Amino acid sequence: MKIKLLESNDGRPNATSSRSTRFLGICLVLGIPVLILFAFVFSPKDDTMEDAVRLLYIHVPVAIFSYIAFGVTAMGSIFYLWKQSRWWDTTAHASAEIGVIFCGLTLVTGSIWGRPTWNTWWEWGDVRLVTTLVMFLIFIGYLALRQVPASPHVRAKRAAIVGIIGTINIPIVNRSVEWWENSTLHQQSSLTDGNLEDLTLFTWFLGTLILAIAYVWLMIHRFRVGWLSTEYESLGYGAAIEERKAEADLHAGTRSGTTEEGEVE
Amino acid sequence: MEFRDAWSIALKDLRIELRSRILMNQIAPYTLLIVVLFGFALDANTQTLRDTGPGLFWVAVLLIALLAIQRAVKIEEDDAARERMLLTPVHSPSVFLGKSIALFIQLFALEILLFFVMLALFDLSVEDPLLIFLSAVLATIGIASSGTLYGVIAAGVGVRETLLPILLLPVIAPIAIGATRAFGDSFGRVDADGWAWLGLLSVFAVVYTVLGMLAYGQLVEDA
Amino acid sequence: MEFRDAWSIALKDLRIELRSRILMNQIAPYTLLIVVLFGFALDANTQTLRDTGPGLFWVAVLLIALLAIQRAVKIEEDDAARERMLLTPVHSPSVFLGKSIALFIQLFALEILLFFVMLALFDLSVEDPLLIFLSAVLATIGIASSGTLYGVIAAGVGVRETLLPILLLPVIAPIAIGATRAFGDSFGRVDADGWAWLGLLSVFAVVYTVLGMLAYGQLVEDA
Amino acid sequence: MNDVIDLREAVVTLGKFPALTGVTLKVTQGEIVTVCGPNGAGKSTLLNLCAGLLPVREGSAYVLGENLRENRRAIRQDIGLLGHKSGLYDDLTVEENVTFWGSMVRAGNDEIAEAIKFMGLDGRLRKVLVRQLSAGQRRRASFASLVVQRPSLWLLDEPHAALDTDGRDLVDGLIQEAAASGATVLLVSHAPKELSSPSGRFVTLAGGRVTSDINNEGSGDGVS
Amino acid sequence: MNDVIDLREAVVTLGKFPALTGVTLKVTQGEIVTVCGPNGAGKSTLLNLCAGLLPVREGSAYVLGENLRENRRAIRQDIGLLGHKSGLYDDLTVEENVTFWGSMVRAGNDEIAEAIKFMGLDGRLRKVLVRQLSAGQRRRASFASLVVQRPSLWLLDEPHAALDTDGRDLVDGLIQEAAASGATVLLVSHAPKELSSPSGRFVTLAGGRVTSDINNEGSGDGVS
Ligand code: HEM
Ligand SMILES: Nc1ncnc2c1ncn2[C@@H]1O[C@H](COP(=O)(O)OP(=O)(O)OP(=O)(O)O)[C@@H](O)[C@H]1O
Ligand SMILES: Nc1ncnc2c1ncn2[C@@H]1O[C@H](COP(=O)(O)OP(=O)(O)OP(=O)(O)O)[C@@H](O)[C@H]1O
Ligand SMILES: [Mg+2]
Ligand SMILES: [Mg+2]
């Protein structure tokens, strides 16, 4: 494998941002205030949930994008096992980290939402809540595994398998509400029922769009950080080889002498 | 993959377990202790205990499984037997299968013991023995195969003792939940549809066994 | 007995723990997991959870303590460091104290973390912070010193992983019960007299520490 | 092609550390090659590389005709590696251990019994747990579980370590016999002069590369 | 009394097995005694007995003037034992390990730094985790943690094992120096002829008892 320099094509030191990420960043900076405006001012209250409904605009998008992020992790993992390329490994790792953040946000916003609507922060009997937590913990484990000192390839392989197995749980989480209807308090697909108000629906779409941009933006940066840090790890490689080779000269005199002795006897 | 190899490996693991008598002298009493411990934690009357019986049973099984898996990994690691195995013509699916079978047998034996203890202590009555039996078998297959797989993932990193629970528990927790519901139904306590949960358990059992046979080789390759 | 030796030994243990980052990367998440696991097992509403909060806290601490003690014994056993220690002029009470201090610090750090997680998850409110603090400190001293003592009893027998829980749990269960009652009082949930339980905890703390300092030497003597 | 081992500028890193910094080494079938070198030179790493247990980072590496950069698994079953650790199960007896490893490498019962006897482990020791063996007895048991394999490439890391004089003679005989029957032997030794046949080929490793490679002719080990 | 070790018909059992069946051995101060014998003869057991780590079942055993049947602890701090295992912590660096053991035996910082340097572990290796060392480097680290102790009775189980030629010379020098400065050395070796001074006293153990005890005069090691 060739060791690339820590420089981008134009010869400048490699940074994690580029023109396109800056564009995405600007979109985010502009988009978030707009979303806040729509979420808190323009969109109406819910009949039953009152102002609490506004959590919909963040809760549901982060939930969806945590699925997507873990899905990308699984894809990266599969491709890693197939192609053994560092690119896929870094992708899987980056996406898992973002996925854990989004999944954590889902749990937090969900809990906050649950307080006024269900009168409880958390409900152990609820399948969706518990399976979301399970998914969160699986990927916490994934990240813990990535911290373990081991050779990059071994670690990547092990992590890839944990990532794939973890993702198998996602459909279970997603379907859990339909499968075990009687053991959940959680909302079923209220979006596809078509009984949401137009503006609510629009704001929700806006929230999803913003989250999509945020995901892509975070991914690109996190990926580059990951890539650069492995690059950085191999930076001293040439020097280390030279230093190690020089160890031989230290022993040169004594060692060859001994070998000759061995021959003579 | 040769089944004969798998069987030799399973026998070897079982023989080691019997030799060190961990199963009878140690894990069995530990099992009892866990049940008692939960009694303390709940600090509740028999009725509560009875209702949560199936849950306790499976949590106890999870903890025992962790211990058994740690042991199974340790015996391979202690003197580099894992690397030695790589230098034989044995296919890794056989190794996986062998170690899973040994784990299954040990866990199942303990579950039978635990089951009768709980039955007596918590004053439960079985309404659907077939459902109990099938769900225990399927859940144990799932636990044994995912445990063997994760055991090797956590192996050789020097921090296995603590890494393994973190990786494994969330993965086998859904199995335990499914089995709990199936048990609950068999005891006539929960109005869950036990047979539907059995479906979930068989999915886990199949998925982890197949995945394990595929992935195990990848994992042990780099010693 | 020289306190300086004890401190060197404690530092060494803590350094090894920090080096392997088990505390932060693994036991801490495991702590969370245990809480979750109990949630499953109880399958109950928040009210029940709230009532059993203190009990759950201490059962979780016990299980974590087991892991931490296993680690502490393992690092001495791995390459015969225990025998090496015998051939130094260090008195065994110092060794005992050093290892207990390291264990105490690790457990206490984890308890703080666990405490705040439980506080948030189970919606508890503290009525008597001093009682909480004191009972946690005393109970942890008791657990750390009895754990260190039993750790060395189970050491070197090749089946430590499973022997230790069996020996230790019955011994520290009373400590956990005492601490649970004291906590229950501090949360204003149980009408137990928390300060009376505190007395019990201090008895345990003192007894195990003294006993440990006396007995440790006897136990490690025959390597 | 008769080169059993053919390494060219092979680099192996352990963690970040380049344990082998570019090893070039050719070993033909039937040769007995002794690897010497100071502690930490990379001798054990070299053996692990040849066993296909470590990835090659740079350079090329062919063992038994297989390219290790592409497929490290294919060759493994033909390799017998005696490392610093024994690869035995502490809680099984000597006989159970050798029988288990024998069945893993498809050895017959006769071969197993013979290997145990050959290493001087019959009699009382046969039924003793490996956990209770002395250092040298354990090493003998490890050897026995290797002998049943009849590998075509022997990689021996300090085969004399912990063995008594008899044991050393046994092992030396074994090595000669293996080479005579067409197998290849790569062994690490810190005291080459002490080997029974101090002639043959000596490769010195230092700083992760070969610093000398001397062949004292007249050994007659090479077959074909 | 100048007898550092004085065993009479000492019997030691490991489990039910009588590893030493009646050893009679006298070693005076300043002597270097080499113990040889086949694998499983009881050599390691003899060293562990002299270190006060094993109970004496029959016979009498005095080490450094203490009766081991009465008090096995008193002598331990004056004894340096290098066994088959290293007694190091895998997750600490070489320097941290030696410093820790140094502080346990009340060695000064200078002595610690010197021991590390003496065993050739300064430079890069100082900050490497013991887990990552090669077999010989680990053995050197183990030696360093012994050197800081400056014991008055050295019990060395195959001190040459895993060491390269330099290392062996270092260790031989160390042994001579220790004996010259009044310490006593009991070492186990499978290849006594390979020791730098093959003169001195050789004790052969077999079947758990002493079968020969030969003193090649003219070594000049004994200081009395
Ligand atoms: C900690 C508590 C909660 C967690 C872990 C959680 C988790 C999730 C997850 C994972 C999804 C994505 C489901 C999917 O698309 O398949 C989701 C969707 C949703 N959640 Fe929550 N949630 C929580 C609390 C709440 C609360 C309190 C409400 C409102 C009362 C709520 C309302 C919704 C709605 C309306 C959706 C969109 C449903 C759909 O279109 O499928 N959630 N939640
Ligand atoms: N993770 C690591 N970090 C730093 N150095 C390492 C690491 N792993 C191994 N090393 C170094 O790589 C080398 C490994 O060499 P190897 O075990 O092959 O030596 P060897 O020639 O077999 O030595 P010995 O004669 O002592 O057995 C040692 O110098 C060791 O310190
Ligand atoms: N529990 C036991 N049961 C049966 N035999 C045992 C037990 N423990 C030890 N032994 C035997 O006691 C002897 C121990 O000898 P020891 O370890 O002292 O040998 P040694 O002379 O150091 O040999 P080596 O040169 O191989 O290191 C061995 O023969 C071993 O098989
Ligand atoms: Mg080596
Ligand atoms: Mg020995």
Most strands sheet of chain D = 6 strands, mixed
**Biggest interface, and residues per chain?**
B-C, 39 and 40 residues
Report the order of strands and helices of chain A. HHHHHHH
Overall geometry of chain A comes to elongated
Helicity range of chain D: 25-40%
Number of helices of chain A: 7
Radius of gyration of chain D: 17 Å
Count of spatially separate domains of chain D = 1
User: Could you tell me the number of beta strands of chain D?
Assistant: 10
Category by helix and strand content of chain D: alpha/beta
Number of DSSP E strands of chain A: 0
Say what the CATH topology of chain D is: Rossmann fold
Please give the oligomerization state of what you see. heteropentamer
The geometry of chain D reads as globular
Q: How many distinct domains of chain A?
A: 1
Uncertain stretches of 5 or more adjacent residues of chain D = 218-224
CATH architecture name of chain D? 3-Layer(aba) Sandwich
List keywords for this structure.
heteropentamer, B: 223 residues, mainly alpha, 8 helices, globular, D: 224 residues, alpha/beta, Rossmann fold, six-stranded mixed β-sheet, four-stranded antiparallel β-sheet, 10 strands, 26% helix, 29% strand, binds protoporphyrin IX containing FE, binds adenosine-5'-triphosphate, binds magnesium ion
Question: What does this protein structure show overall?
Answer:
The complex is a heteropentamer, with one copy of chain A (265 residues), two copies of chain B (223 residues) and two copies of chain D (224 residues). Chain A has 265 residues and is mainly α. Chain A has helices at residues 19-42, 56-83, 86-118, 127-147, 152-179, 198-233, 237-264. Chain A has one domain (19-44, 54-186, 198-253). Chain A contains seven helices and no strands. Chain A starts with 18 loop residues before the first helix and ends with a helix. The mean pLDDT of chain B is 82. Chain B has one domain (3-220). Helix content of chain B is 85%, strand content 0%. Chain B is built from eight helices and no strands. Chain D is α/β, with parallel strands linked by helices and 224 residues long. Chain D has five helices and ten strands. Chain D starts with a strand and ends in an 8-residue tail after the last strand. Mean pLDDT of chain D is 88; it is low at 218-224. Classes of the chains: A mainly alpha (265), B mainly alpha (223), D alpha/beta (224). The interface between B and C is large, with 39 and 40 residues. Bound molecules: protoporphyrin IX containing FE, adenosine-5'-triphosphate (2 copies) and magnesium ion (2 copies). Protoporphyrin IX containing FE (HEM) binds at residues 56, 59-60, 63-64, 106-107, 110-111, 113-114, 117-118, 128-129, 132, 174, 186-187, 189-191 of chain A.
